[in-house]
Amino acid sequence: MIDSITIERIQSASQIYEVVSDFVTLKKRGVNYVGICPFHEDNTPSLYVSPAKNLYKCFACGEGGTAIHFVMKYEQLSYPEALQYLAKKYGIEFREIKMSNEQKQIQNIREAMFILNSFAQKTFSTNLFDTKEGQSVGLSYFRKRNFRKDIIQKFQLGYADSQRDSFTQTAIRAGYKQEYLKKTGLSIIEKNYTIDRFRERVIFPIHTLSGKIVAFGGRILKKEEKVAKYVNSLESEIYHKSNELYGIYFARQAIVKYDQCYLVEGYTDVISMHQAGIENVVASAGTALTQGQIRLIRRFTKNITVLYDRDTAGIKAALRSINLLLETGLNIKTVLLPEGEDPDSFSQKQSATSFNNYIKKNETDFVRFKVELLMQDAGNDPIKKVQILTETVYTIALIPEEITRLIYVKECSYLLDIDERLLMHNVEKKREELFLQKKKNDKLQLQKTEQQNTINNLPSLEHNLNLSFPFYEYETNIMYYVVRYGEQYFYYEYEDEGTNELISANLNVIEFIVSDLEEDEIELHYPLYRKMLKEGYEWCKKNNFIAEEYYKNHSDIKISHFAVDISTDKYIESKVFSQYKETKVNEEKLKTTKQSQINKMLLKEIPYVMLNYKNAILKHRVETINKQIKLAEKGNNFDKQKELISQLSGLLKTKKVIALRLRERIITKL
Ligand SMILES: [Zn+2]
């Protein structure tokens, strides 16, 4: 746990715009900012950032929250880790007090792995520069590649020596645990032997977006047939291959600056291009491009240029992964490099300017590139020509924008010498097919998700599940006032039932609701709300307690999500509230009115909301007792029947009183 003063300081220092714009390009729109949401496949900017509310919210996927939540979600950090990140960003001294064991464990594992990776990187770098083997094998290899020292240091390149467990021994001597050596995959530890994963290889550390090392790639320099040229870290708690792109940490700013990203194949391509001054470049490094990697690029730009060398096997493999890019509506250009060159060798012969000029002159859009390439391959073979047509139709059908599809149909009908209408017809047919297929897949996916009961990213589904809690709608309505106005005091008068005396009280909203529920011995049914109300009651007497801030910044993500939804008015439009619409206050109007009017509003609204809730509970009880009476009748159980009927008449009396008060409320509202 982190002490509450530090948390408060971090919360108040963290400006949502500053935090989000480190990762997402934001454009001003009115008083807010908008950007492409990094949490779903976003085509139009759906992510809203409100500096005034200090919140972000995606109106497509529902993700939203404070700066802390954004960092948690984006960097996949725990709550304390996110606080630490923000403390660092804003130069706030970070003190920790005791954490729960579970928190400690999770955080410790991840942190220990990052720390160990950082230690490994330093060890490999020292090997490279300061040992004989490192210099003669590793450094001389990089020199042969013409890598400058500053570039080697920037990318934190290194060397793992040829002894079987020298790194493992070094790490253990330095106090690192075997457990983490195994988890990070740096060491292969079995019952009867221990061995370094990386031996006699130059090392390329793989950085996250925020610059932490999640994994390593190692390239062997000797020509041995039985040994893989590249070895990579295994997937782990911190490393998911399909979500990382080599070079993204160093490329991020340049990608935003030029609104464009080069995609290459290998580590050395990225490094050489950097050295030539072209920094907006990343590599998928050994894997076929994945959705996760595309999302990573899309956070920064929609324009991707794929660089190919002329090795045909490589091109064909790459062509397949490009279909993925098309589907997401990215603008893809391709450039074939001159015969015998790859991005690495080519950029070494160029300045940044001449390199960029070559690209400008030679880039073609992807569809044309693909068709031309396939045509060269097919020659005059009619069967192959049909295959090209099928392939082309498929590729064009993947493109989301209609206008872009039309342009390609025109162009390809010319290239393939095929009637334009015929091609169009086939594309539309294919699209329909793809659409149906997708619908089927989505349905399957949804079923799977429902089965697994993982409802995190499906707010509507979660909502439906919640609806099965009794009185969920009524309790949500109560919680609206708890979150929105919890700390507001309002002057309240009521008639004491015993003495008929008029009693006045000055309670805040939370206190009123708690005491009102207690009076009738009612507890909220929905566990999350119960927890929120209980905590709010404990905190609301503190001097500067503001309910909305308290809940929004809550470390329980469910609570803060709920509070964020409430303060971004999602619930007001939802079905849950439609039945209370007439009771809802006009928020805009309210802002301009005085405190006294807020009090007036609360005085009107809150007792009404509470009465409505109690009325619903009573109605339910009456129904239950009626059922029980019928059962008792059937069983000829007269005593039971009598008892139930007297209970019922008591309930009905109370219900009448409530109904009367409700009617009064409605009348006074008119
Ligand atoms: Zn979203």
TrEMBL record:
GO cellular component assignments: cytoplasm; DNA-directed RNA polymerase complex; primosome complex
Protein name (Swiss-Prot/TrEMBL): DNA primase
Domain remark in the UniProt entry: Contains an N-terminal zinc-binding domain, a central core domain that contains the primase activity, and a C-terminal DnaB-binding domain.
InterPro entries the record matches: DNA_primase_core_N_sf, DNA_primase_DnaG, DNA_primase_Znf_CHC2, DnaG_bac, DNAG_N, DnaG_primase, TOPRIM_DnaG_bac, TOPRIM_dom
Signal peptide: none
Entry's EC annotation: 2.7.7.101
Gene name, Swiss-Prot/TrEMBL: dnaG
The record's free-text note on cofactor binding: Binds 1 zinc ion per monomer.
Zinc finger (CHC2-type): 37-61
Subunit record text: Monomer. Interacts with DnaB.
